[in-house]
Amino acid sequence: MLTERKDLRNVAIIAHVDHGKTTLVDGLLKQAKTFRDNQQIVERVMDSNDLERERGITILAKNTSVIINDPETNTPVKINIVDTPGHADFGGEVERVMNMVDGVLLLVDAAEGPMPQTRFVLKKALEMGHKAIVVINKMDRKDAEPDRTLNATFDLFVELGANEEQADFPVIYANAITQQAGETKELSSDLQPLFNAILKYIPAPKVDIDAPFQMLVTNLGYDDYRGVTAVGRIFAGKVSAGQDVARIKVNGEIVPEKMKYLYTHQGLEKVSVDEATAGEIISIAGLEGIGIGETLADALNPIALPPIMVEEPTVKMTFAVNNSPFKGREGKWSTSRNLRERLMNELRNNVALRVDETESPDTFIVSGRGELHLAILIETMRREGYEFQVSKPEVILKDGPDGKPLEPYEELHIETNQETVGIVVEMLGTRRGKMLDMVNTNENTVRLTYLIPTRGLLGFRYQFLTATRGNGIMNTIFHGYGPYTGAFSTRATGSIVAWDTGPTTTFGLKNAEERGTLFVGAGLDVYEGMVVGERAQPGDLTVNVCKKKHLTNMRSSNKDIEIRLTPPRNMSLDEAIEYLEEDELLEVTPVAFRIRKKILNTEDRGKMTKKAKEEVA
Known about the structure:
Elements: E1 3-4, E2 8-15, H1 21-31, H2 50-55, E3 62-70, E4 75-83, H3 91-97, E5 103-109, H4 116-127, E6 131-137, H5 146-159, H6 164-167, E7 171-175, E8 180-182, H7 192-201, E9 206-207, E10 214-223, E11 227-236, E12 238-240, E13 244-248, E14 254-258, E15 261-266, E16 269-272, E17 275-277, E18 281-285, E19 295-298, E20 315-321, H8 336-346, E21 354-357, E22 363-368, H9 371-383, E23 388-391, E24 394-395, E25 398-399, E26 405-417, H10 421-430, E27 434-440, E28 445-453, H11 454-457, H12 460-467, E29 473-483, E30 494-498, E31 502-503, H13 506-513, E32 516-518, E33 525-526, E34 531-535, E35 541-543, H14 573-579, E36 584-588, E37 593-597, H15 602-616
Parallel strand pairs: 2-4, 2-5, 5-6, 6-7, 30-35
Antiparallel strand pairs: 1-9, 3-4, 7-8, 10-11, 10-19, 11-18, 12-17, 13-14, 13-19, 15-16, 15-18, 20-22, 20-23, 20-24, 21-22, 23-36, 25-26, 26-28, 26-29, 27-28, 30-34, 31-33, 32-34, 36-37
Helix pairs in contact: 9-14
GO biological process, one term: ribosomal large subunit assembly
GO molecular function: GTP binding; GTPase activity; ribosome binding; rRNA binding; tRNA binding
Subunit structure: Monomer.
């Protein structure tokens, strides 16, 4: 028999990246008296991952809860809150947490309106049948247009196929930074109107407490003392600490388990409990080997829940054991066994990732939702002490109904100033982009909407920021698969490649600097085949950057002091991945990352280039 748990609400906060989700959660936690009055709290407290703090984005979905008083019934109500990523590359996180909640808060920037990732996350929520509360945030912006934003949001609901009930959404206006909200544009002094809206419009869980126990695992974590923790929502029945349960794997295999440690979320803490009932989001520790999408069920009546469905990856890279001359010098974990174990462990909680083994035991094909999705994995592994090498990202092609290849397409949204719009349009034209819309805004900027092959966006972001002098904004969302558009070049420059192995010299680098932009400074160790700079013209140039000036009675080494080099270009990991060409690899270590040629020997590389030209001719 279904009963309504009026003492509980489960809600996810969804939005485009940087529209204020995590900041709003900060405000909800503070105003619900989650923290002590004298407790020191950092900003964006839910972004606990180092990479999240550095990049200012949410990468992993996280759970928290607040307890507030229902003014109508004067009883406490627990609100479980899930903070989700706003970037489409981490859509796997969004897709799986939608199984845990009964409604969503959709944040929209009052000035920017609905953005590409707004469409993505809202589509997932509507597909699950969830009711949404629209929160128009950042009302303090000078260019805020809440009426236009509201109309655009309603149009988006209709466009995404929202039913009549979903399209009749309540609206709350807010300013997350000052922790104010209101049912009208006149904000109150606190977030109480938002709390009231959650209690009024987010449905209470309807559950069958007497049915056999069922829980779907939607997230994994790790406890230093009790091992792997599995997070999920109890869909039916109840469970006690120490109870025997059945773990139903995705392939249908049933494994007997015991619920050793049982927790619920209170604020940012996990609190041990003896029992939990249907509707609650819980965390279980001590179940080794458990995976996302598996069902924990009653031991005597094990019934599996539908598995989590995640969209397929669109971009792939090869991860391989580092075989450069510097291998083993800087990494803690560098063997094929280490690499394989780490990638297989990542599959347990990164549901949107795919790892395929190749004929070589040292090489793996890793597929993800985009360049950023894979770059975050690479950076995480690097910080953990792993040393490996990766290839240029490639799109994953599919065969169409007629046997012809199909490739993924992205919907690209760009905002740039009127002075640079011409060069941006030219760049996108060479990358097979098709313009869908062009709008002039009130702020002397131009908004462009393009449909472009995913291949055209590989390596585009850095060139775009350079062309717009850092003022351009770009966002993408996966559109679907379309006809393969043929080969095209995404880089008009070549590489400056080291001829010899050894420390670089000022004399050698000066010769190279005259031909392009350097990536390395003087006194750094390089090896033959390592890329040390970017050439202005297409084609590679091999230079001896270790060359020393011969000394005679007429020439002194002190003359080198007079040589002044331009500071080298320090590339971030994302820029280095974007820079790669087909014949190049990125060597990744905890200390550095180095771009190199796949064939290091200069003579062998020359023979391969000559052979390729002869085949074309």
